Every structure is written in structure tokens, then in C-alpha cells.
Amino acid sequence: MASNLPVARSQIHILLFLILKILYSGAEDGAVKSMLFECICEGNSCDHQKRCFGQQCFASVILNGEAYVFQKGCFGVLEHGEMTCKTAPSINQVVECCYGNLCNWNISAKPLLPQVAEAIQYNTELFVIFVISPIMVVLILTFVAIVACRKISQNRMHRLLAHDAEHGMIDGLITSNIGDSTLADLLDHSCTSGSGSGLPFLVQRTVARQITLVECVGKGRYGEVWRGQWQGENVAVKIFSSRDEKSWFRETEIYNTILLRHENILGFIASDMTSRNSSTQLWLITHYHENGSLYDYLQRNTVDADGCLNVVLSIASGLVHLHTEIFGTEGKPAIAHRDLKSKNILVKKNLHCCIADLGLAVMHSQKNNQLDVGNNPKVGTKRYMAPEVLDESIQADCFDAYKRVDIWAFGFVLWEIARRTFSNGIVEEYKPPFYDLVPSDPSFEDMRKVVCIEQQRPSIPNRWFSDPTLTALAKLMKECWYQNPSARLTALRIKKTLGKINNSQEKVKEDY
């Protein structure tokens, strides 16, 4: 009995060992995770111990400063371990976890380093895809755009050089050939070369920067007008204030319109944005007319019936050219002025007139039915505003509506000229429209009350009805002032009517 006791004890020990082995290595994960495992511990957190006990064992490579540190140990809290172990490898840290006694014994740094390398490669690829690639695409597109623009510019320059070689002028270059030309030569070349608008842009800048300002001849809300000189020739330099850049840009755009050039439209020479006296200046260079504006001229001078008809016919001719669309490959859009008044009309030496100040103009092309109103919030001069503008009932998307606004204003210009026309030795002093009904600087509401509510019009002096020319002009201006815009005359009808009045006067002279 006593001799069998050691054997029995040995069997019990073997049985217990098998049970423990099953529990430690053969059980399901859920059961194993609830137990503590003995793990190898290496690194700063081990406090000189080579073993630790926890829910999981691990081995890791962690970036510390600029060097990677290899560590082994255990997680005492299961949730903490699982959260760390589920973290994907990164360039800062790679962790490999395991369950079981001393299971991290054989894990070394070497197998973990490829995972660090993969993480570095993955992050590098992400950086390239989301940061470097868009930058490269933008740079490539920018380069392509620059090359394309340069190519277009070179092609355009080659065409200009080829064409202008016959005329001895190289467009866009500061050469002695330009220096030897007159403005008339340059403009004639521009017209005969097919543009019918202003000079080529580079020539404009060349001319603009060779101009000397001589004297200031006028000021307005836009800035100043100076008499300048280019190679001994007088030119007008309209200098816009910086706050009125939109008007300068719009007027430059309009003046460069194909086929705009006309004897009754102010002759455009050049436009330039330049820096002078430490400030940006916006220049518009045009022909110079020493008589100044029609407004100034009528203050100082009177006209006879012939002179009156010459003035109004020239203005009507300019307005017809503006309003008319010219069709074709190199066509011209129809243009409405929107700020027609005596201050925006210049008197030439031959006492014919030309229309100026196109900064508020509207363009329209029937080809694509496109209405270009520009980007200028100004709406014109209050004293000359039509009823539909004052009561804001104008059809803003209809080009004809803007032409009818010009006709309304033309009627007032006609009235101003007629007052300064002699008949039977009598003439009225110059006065602006509605001088007797509104203040010198009328408000929007002042004009709306007089024009829209009271429906008043400038008074017609009795002496006009004793003169056939002034009588006909009085009838014509009334047909420009209809309250209903669609009832007003067109610019072409006005021009034809003025032509008939002029012919009648010529016939009367022949009879005498």
C-alpha cells in the first residue's frame, strides 16, 4: 500500500500538468484571454525585470527621436492591448502581439522592420498622390498654358511682321519706323490692314509712353483731360482716377471694337495702364479737338441754321454708326451709348461733331443674341435720363431699350443746339435741359418727379415757329421725347429726317 503511494502521486502530477497544458495552449481564444501569460520583457519599461505577466505579450519597434527602439513586454489591460495591437503599422510604430507563455520570445526586430518600411512606402505614396501630384499637375498645366500663350503671341507677331514688312512698320516694337510715322499714318495703316479699330496693342503702349503732357484742359467725375504731344502732334489724354478703372477698361474695350472707326466717333489712338509718380495711371489717348465739348462750344458760340444742321446731322450720323450692327466675318456689334449729352460730344475744326465717352456703352450681336452690358454700375447722367430709367421700368435684357434711351437724350442735345441757333436776329442764352424745373445738380428723385410723374419736357421758344428749320427741329425733338419708348424715332429715321430738312433748306437757297 505504501509502495504504491509515490506512483499515485506521480500520476496526479502528470494529470495536473496535462490539464494546465490544455488550459494554456489548447483552449479557445476567449478562455485564454481571460488568463495571465508570462512574457519576455525588454526595454525601458521593464525596470530590470526580464519577465512580466499580462493579458497579452508583444514585441514592437517604436521611433524615438531619430532612432528606432526595439521593445518586448506585456499588456496588463486586455482592452489596451487589443486597441494597440489593432493599430496598423506606421512609420512611427509597429507592434506584433501574441497570446501564450513566453510567446514573444522568438520575435526579433528584424521581421518587424519590413513592416516599418512598408508603412513608410505607403505614407510616401499617399503624400505623392494627395500632395505632390496636384502640385505637379498645376505646374504642368501652367507650363502648357505659358507655352501656348507664347506660341499664339509668336504666331500673331509673325503675321504682323509679314504683313507690315510691306509698309516699313514693325508693330509693337519701339523702332525708328514708328518714330518717323505720323498718327495719321499709323491709323491709316491700322484701318487698311483690316482692323478698323485702334492700333495694335503693343504699338499703343509704345505711343502712350512717348507722350508729353502739356496742359490740363478739363476735369470731370472720371478724372482729367490733358492736351499732350506725340512727336509734335497734339493728342487728348484722358486720365481716369483709380476708382473709375471699370470705365477706363470698358471704354478701351469699346474703342478697340472692329470697324468702330468713323468720322463722327472720337478717333481712338491708344490706351495704357502705366505707373507714373509712384501711382497707377489709366490713360486713354484720342484725337485732340481744340473746340472742346459741344457743351463748352455752345456756352461761347452761336450758330446759324446751316451750322445747326451740320452739327446735328454729324451727331446723328455718329449715333447711327454706333447703333448699327455690321455683319460678316469681321463684323461690328451694335452699340448703345447710354450717356449721350452735350459734354460727351466734341466739336471738330469743321464744326462737325464726334461722339465720345463710351465707358457706359452696351454691345449686342444678333449672331449669338448676346447682350454685353459690361461691368460698370453707373447708369448715366440724371438730367438726361429717360423715364424708363428713372422709374426703373426699362427692359434691361433688351438691347433696343438702350438705343431708345440714347434717342431720348439726343432730343435734349438737339434742344440745346437749337436754342443757340440764330433766327431773325434772336438767340437764347445757353441753358441745360430742365434748367427752370430742377436744381443745378438734380437728384434722381427730382428728375423722376418732373419727367415721370409730371411728364414735363423742355420748353419750346415761340420764335422757333417763325423759322422753318427750327420748326422742323422742334417737331423732331418732340418725337424723341415720347413717354412710351417704342414710339420714339430710330437714329436712322432721325438722320434721314435731318437730311430732308437740310435738302429743303438748300432748295430754298437755290430759289433765292
Automatic annotation (TrEMBL):
Its cofactor is Mn(2+); Mg(2+). Residues 181-210 form the GS domain. Residues 211-498 form the Protein kinase domain. Its EC number is 2.7.11.30. This is receptor protein serine/threonine kinase. The keyword Nucleotidyltransferase does not apply. It is found in: Membrane. It catalyses: L-seryl-[receptor-protein] + ATP = O-phospho-L-seryl-[receptor-protein] + ADP + H(+); L-threonyl-[receptor-protein] + ATP = O-phospho-L-threonyl-[receptor-protein] + ADP + H(+). PANTHER family: RECEPTOR PROTEIN SERINE_THREONINE KINASE, TRANSFORMING GROWTH FACTOR-BETA RECEPTOR TYPE I AND II. The chain crosses the membrane at residues 126-149. Belongs to the protein kinase superfamily. TKL Ser/Thr protein kinase family. TGFB receptor subfamily. Residues 1-27 form the signal peptide. It is an enzyme of class 2 (transferase). One of its GO terms (molecular function) is metal ion binding. CDD domains: STKc_ACVR1_ALK1 (cd14142), TFP_LU_ECD_ALK2 (cd23535). It comes from Alligator mississippiensis (American alligator). Its main location: membrane. ATP binds at K238. Pfam families: Activin_recp, PK_Tyr_Ser-Thr, TGF_beta_GS.
